[in-house]
Structure to design on (543 residues):
């Protein structure tokens, strides 16, 4: 088996997979997280996927009678994973299209990204929009997607001095990662464009436009 | 019924017991940092434990109650005044309509919880009334109180009183702590650093501490591989070690994922005690086994249950 069950403090288990920041490992994370969630086990309160691990927060009430609730939960999870391994699940992720205004006032760092890659601005936009991305996880801030699938050529170092205010909806590249800022706020990634879509609205259900494991495509609109 | 904010205090927010079920979307839990004090304040005014209260940091707001109200303050030992009279914490207080409650500085501790019968009745967002300061939602528009705010309070029929009436009984709202006073820590997911380094010397609470994390200053912890990890789940209580070797204990406003090594986790039973530390305070940590963590949590719940029973009995007798 290529997974390990550990603990994240005294209220959660941590399921870790071999592998790093790669699409295959992350795909397994989402397959397992979805399969476990589908069981609706009463002792599981929340499942939080990450690149190569899943936090499993336990339901206190469901495990209350046990002398060692986490140990009991570990055994239950182990059994559940064995069951799932016997019947491998397939996954058909959603694909979400995100229209992006690349460059200009919306993407003040697009030239920098293009220069760094040795490309024209048009080529850089074409490469970014051609990518097939996956939401590896949502974190850092409510609704902030960490996307896998950036063309390695577009990888660009973070800004030396972070901006104090990045507009909401900004599409950005930070090192080898790309993502979108759901909220206005400080940020050190290179801004290459902006979408008009609302990525996070606490009054919506679900509150985020993107869900863990979703596929994402960027579509250039309105000219670069 | 509502409460008018005459002055807000340095950081006063609406909190309940937190917002769970949304961590997979990057939404943290938030909620009262000292959950024990939050629950006790609620019980003292006859609210359910998860009614929303005001979390007061270091010093309090000045509040005007539009109608007769029953209030209680628990947690930090904080100065309370109404119409020139000093009032006591950790007991029910009946206030007349129009009363102005002046809440001063904390004499001991950092966070006090003001509960009002009926509960702070802002609209729940994603199942909770807690303020998510980083996401900017929940509570009062996702921000701390400001002068001029009007805080809605749930329906509660209170008889009018001529002057503040303070109960002649009170509860002991001090936290149970191990004899050595240490904060107990379970081993972390990334135990490669010399984890004992956390336990060898005392730490000082840094001024940059906030609801997201308690920042510690002390002998730098040097690890062999201090670099960032693959971002992975963290939770309130997680002890992170950034490259500067000064640990951060994540609190209720913790982000959902982090890239720093996780060198330990403060046990749940001790999280309320962390909430009462103030900048400059010394704090020591001690290693803890999972069984001990569970026993401590049970003991804490039993102590709360006993207090709840006592409050119920006293309340039936009256103020």
């Amino acid at each position: 088996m290529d997974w390990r069950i550990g603990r994240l403090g005294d209220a959660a288990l941590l399921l870790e997979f071999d592998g790093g920041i790669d699409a295959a490992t992350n795909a397994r994370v989402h397959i397992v997280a979805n399969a476990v969630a589908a069981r609706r086990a009463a002792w599981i309160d929340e499942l939080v996927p990450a690149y190569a691990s899943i936090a499993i927060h336990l339901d206190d009430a469901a495990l209350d009678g046990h002398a060692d609730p986490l140990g009991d939960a570990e055994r239950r999870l182990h059994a559940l994973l064995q069951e799932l391994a016997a019947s491998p699940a397939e996954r058909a992720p959603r694909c979400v299209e995100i229209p992006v205004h690349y460059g200009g006032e919306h993407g003040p760092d697009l030239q920098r990204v293009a220069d760094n890659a040795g490309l024209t601005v048009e080529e850089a936009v074409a490469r970014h929009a051609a990518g097939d991305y996956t939401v590896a996880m949502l974190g850092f801030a409510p609704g902030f997607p960490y996307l896998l699938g950036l063309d390695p050529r577009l990888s660009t170092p973070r800004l030396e001095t972070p901006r104090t205010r990045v507009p909401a909806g900004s599409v950005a590249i930070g090192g080898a990662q790309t993502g979108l800022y759901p909220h206005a706020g400080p940020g050190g990634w290179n801004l290459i464009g902006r979408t008009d879509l609302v990525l996070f609205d606490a009054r919506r259900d679900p509150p985020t436009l993107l869900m863990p494991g979703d596929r994402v495509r960027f579509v250039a609109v309105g000219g670069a | 019924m509502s409460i008018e904010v005459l002055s807000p205090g340095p950081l006063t927010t609406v909190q309940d017991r937190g917002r769970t079920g949304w961590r997979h979307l990057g939404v943290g839990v938030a909620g009262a940092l000292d959950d024990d004090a939050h629950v006790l304040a609620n019980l003292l005014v006859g609210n359910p434990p998860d009614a929303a209260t005001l979390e007061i940091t270091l010093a309090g707001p000045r509040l005007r109650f539009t109608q007769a109200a029953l209030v209680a303050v628990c947690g930090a030992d904080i100065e309370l005044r109404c119409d020139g009279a000093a009032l006591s914490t950790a007991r029910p207080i009946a206030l007349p309509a129009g009363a102005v409650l002046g809440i001063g500085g904390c004499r001991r501790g950092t966070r006090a919880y003001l509960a009002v019968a009926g509960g702070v009745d802002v609209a729940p967002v994603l199942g909770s009334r807690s303020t998510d300061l980083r996401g900017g939602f929940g509570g009062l528009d996702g921000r701390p109180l400001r002068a001029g705010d009007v805080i809605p309070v749930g329906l509660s029929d209170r008889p009018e009183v001529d002057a503040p009436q303070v109960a002649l009984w009170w509860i002991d709202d001090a936290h149970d702590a191990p004899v050595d006073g240490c904060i107990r820590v379970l081993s972390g997911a990334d135990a490669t650093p010399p984890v004992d380094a956390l336990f060898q010397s005392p730490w000082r609470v840094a001024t940059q501490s906030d609801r997201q994390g308690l920042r510690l200053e002390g002998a730098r912890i040097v690890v062999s591989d201090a670099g960032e990890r693959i971002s992975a789940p963290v939770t309130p209580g997680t002890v992170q070690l950034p490259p500067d070797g000064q640990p951060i204990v994540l609190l209720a406003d913790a982000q959902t994922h982090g890239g720093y090594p996780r060198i330990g986790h403060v046990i749940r039973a001790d999280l309320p005690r962390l909430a009462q530390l103030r900048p400059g305070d010394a704090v020591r940590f001690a290693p803890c086994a999972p069984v001990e963590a569970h026993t401590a949590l049970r003991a804490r719940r039993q102590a709360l249950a006993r207090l709840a029973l006592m409050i119920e009995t006293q309340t039936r007798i009256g103020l």
Remarks:
- Residues 53 and 106 of chain A are 34 Å apart (CA to CA).
